[in-house]
Amino acid sequence: MNNDTWTLGGREFRSRFILGSGKYSLKLIEAAVRDAGAEIITLSVRRANTRDQENILDYIPQGVTLLPNTSGARSAEEAVRIARLARELGCGDFVKIEIMRDSKYLLPDNAETIRATEILAKEGFVVMPYMYPDLYAARDLANAGAAAIMPLAAPIGSNKGLATRDFIQILIDESDLPIIVDAGIGRPSQACEAMEMGAAAIMANTALATAGDLPLMAAAFRQAIEAGRKAYLSGLGRVLTRGASASDPLTGFLRD
Amino acid sequence: MEQRFLVGSSHLSPEAQAKKHRLETDPTARTDHMAYLPDMERIDSDVMDKVIGQMKSYDPAAYTAADVKAALEHDTCSIEDFKALLSPAAQPFLEEMAARARLETSKHFGNTVYLFTPLYIANYCENYCVYCGFNCYNDISRMKLTMEQIEKEMQVIAASGMEEILILTGESRGKSNVEYIGEACKLARKYFRMVGLEVYPVNTEEYRYLHECGTDYVTVFQETYDADRYEQLHLMGHKRVWPYRFEAQERALMAGMRGVAFSALLGLSDFRKDALATALHAYYLQRKYPHAELSLSCPRLRPIINNEKIDPQDVHETQLCQILCAYRIFLPYVGITVSSRESARFRDGIVKIAATKVSAGVSTGIGDHESKYTGKETGAEQGDEQFEIADGRSLDRMYEDIAGEGLQPVLNDYLYV
After folding, report:
1. What is the pLDDT along chain B (417 residues), one digit of tens a residue?
2. Using CA atoms, how far apart are residues A215 and A27, in angstroms rounded to an integer?
3. Residues 6+ away with beta carbon under 8 Å from A111
4. Contact residues, chain A, for B333 at CB < 8 Å
5. d(CA B296, CA B279)
6. Phi, psi of B4 (to 5 degrees)
7. CA distance B134 to chain A (A)
8. What is the CA angle A235-A241-A244, rounded to 5?
9. What Cα–Cα distance (Å) separates residue B78 from each residue in B72, B85, B189, B235?
10. What's the rounded Cα separation, in Å, for the pair B123 and B166?
11. Could you tell me the residue ranges of all domains in chain B?
């Protein structure tokens, strides 16, 4: 358990909590790093595009990996432009692709996301696509050079938990890339469940941002994610979801 | 025509006085407000029929407390639920509505509040809209800023820290043509991260040109969705053509604009029906253009120069709050803007419930930002205001006040791509 790390774009991470970018504040970033242990923090490029006295870039602690996202993009071309701008702004090579063509539910467009992944992976970006959990799209993203797959659990900001649970499980089972469950995680227990299923990491924002006591909720997420991860490593997750092993062998009657 | 709206006309020539009087008193002297003028583009759209059909069949008095309770219990607010929330039966449930609205706002916007400021660059107007301070018969000081003056104004505003600007003009194609507005947008792109426009409605190709000049958001207020009432208030000019105005947002989206904003001017007609139509206008366009970013405003009538008596009629703060809560519950994902027409107290309260955008450092006059922002008497020529504002807080003050309420002021969340 002590050596339980995971790798993205050649960097090794211990923490399996990633802070999303929807609702930002200095307090949220502090709590995410200090209490939830976040080593990766998402940064909305359009939000960082500011002269504001509270420029988010100034608040990202040393040693934390920035994950700029392309929120606001409505096509692969727009996502590519935003990713390049992020690189120019000095945000590094990581990029989370978000392409939405629906302002109501903010659901990702898988086809455009695959196109953007292909272009940006060729340009040397560590591409982390946000997607609707579809197996074919996940395979296409892997072939296009994605570094991880980020399926949504439920619509962004909905706090509805693992609404796409069974389909995320298929991605975990069938993909060789880390599966990072993104969007919709509303409580620590849901993060725990996703980790039990074998997710590599959890991304959340609203659940923390709207909590009454930020640091306390951040700590709760950390513990839930660790608990889920331990359960997965122990094999318990598989036992729970795929049927318990009988104490007497079912095939004990066989004689030859 | 209600006398309460009318401004004096002693400054006009006898011919102009006679024409004004005829327009006000004789409906047959006025043009057909439903007929497009020759230069006005027609588009193929069923949105207007849908909105007006819903509005006409809406009877606010038909809803009961049980309908309101049911609406508040539903996960998804249907059009019927929304009608109940806008009805008089919902008024006793205002606190419950506010709680639900706050929940929806926080799910979609967290605790962020966006800040912007309007910049009026000209107040010439070719229309006679009886309630508006810019109307062509009102005796006010008129002005159109030159590009140098616009740039100066923008520098003053940008120096205050503002990053989003909304450029406005009076509605005069003659004095403020599309190229003039386009050049102002290009200038604005130099000083601001986000540029919105609130000018007279134009054709799709003109919206496309304005988009290329750097603007991405278009605001058009329908004033009232009751076309018969509209006819009685907009007596002359291009603006008199009601359906062309209705289709402005759709033309803007067809031209590639990222977002559009809507509103009725509350107090002109039955405000419940107007609020219903405003939200449905956004709702049906979202279904047709799912990528569009949408925003609703909620202006109430205000006093104007030469007429202190204009007021919001039966739309008191309670009713306004009810409308905004209903908007938020029905359309959780749309932006809601509350302008400086409302008091500081109301705006401080409503940003905690439903509003996501407020203006600051506002002037509705022309060319007066330097004197207003710095307190310096610049001696420069200035144009009169469109209406009186009620909340004169500067950007710094507004920023502090919002942060002080535990909310997060945001100056920009936008990228022109």
Report:
1. 567 788 888 888 888 888 888 988 999 999 999 999 999 999 999 999 999 999 999 999 999 999 999 999 999 999 999 999 999 999 999 999 999 999 999 888 888 899 999 999 999 999 998 888 888 888 888 899 999 999 999 999 999 999 999 999 999 999 999 999 999 999 999 999 999 999 999 999 999 999 999 999 999 999 999 999 999 999 999 999 999 999 999 999 999 999 999 999 999 999 999 999 999 999 999 999 999 999 999 998 887 787 888 777 889 999 999 999 999 999 999 999 999 989 999 999 999 999 999 999 998 888 888 888 877 777 777 888 888 888 999 999 999 999 888 888 888 888 888
2. 9
3. A137
4. 103-106
5. 7
6. -60, -30
7. 34
8. 70
9. 11, 10, 39, 36
10. 15
11. 39-410
A215: tokens are 């640091």
Q: Does the distance separating the beta carbons of A82 and B110 come in below 8 Å?
A: no
Q: Can you name the CATH fold of B39-410?
A: TIM Barrel (3.20.20)
Contact flag B110-A85 (C-beta cutoff 8 Å): no
User: Closest approach of chain A CAs to the CA of B220, in angstroms?
Assistant: 20
Query: ipTM of this model?
Result: 0.78
pTM: 0.89
- Active-site annotation holds for A96: yes
Query: What six digits make up the tokens of A172?
Result: 């975990």
- A51 with B411: Cβ contact below 8 A: yes
